[in-house]
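Sanity check record (used in CI):
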Amino acid sequence: MTAAGLVRVLTARGLTVATAESLTGGLVCAALTDVPGASAVVRGGVVSYATDVKAGVLGVDAALLARVGAVDARVAAAMAEGVRRVLGADVGVSTTGVAGPDPADGQPVGTVFVGVSSSAGTRTERHLFSGGRDTVRRESVRAALDLVAAEVENLRDTGREAGYGGPTDAPPTTREEAP
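Expected output for Nicotinamide-nucleotide amidase:
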């Protein structure tokens, strides 16, 4: 979904969104805030490029980060939950991964985890994008917008549209996707 389409859907449903971004460095939030009227739905964003920011600002477990690194589904889930909590949004979305040029945290270039958190729960997707750094980052933004759109549809279908209910006790679900 385009950023403009997502802003329209969020506005129509009365939902807010917040972003927690690592490899995208604020591009998801920028895509959303480029849309006129985005101030009605975008709560803000946290660029948590550094691992200690993921822990200190977003509340990602430091022991988890030390054990698995930042490129992990559980980290993406915790980032999405953290930004949702910190910024008081209905939906939190996160990106973490390896844009390149070199592998990181034992993951190859192009490995990206996108997370989303809402009152319906938390889930993540793993992607493996091919191409250079710019392509990986651009595709990560697209994946994040698509995941938020799917979550908003899920909220509509479950009747759980608004209100921060805190992180769920259930482990995040993960979907793998390759190009």
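The chain has one domain: 3-177. If this sentence no longer matches the regenerated tokens, the check is flagged for review.
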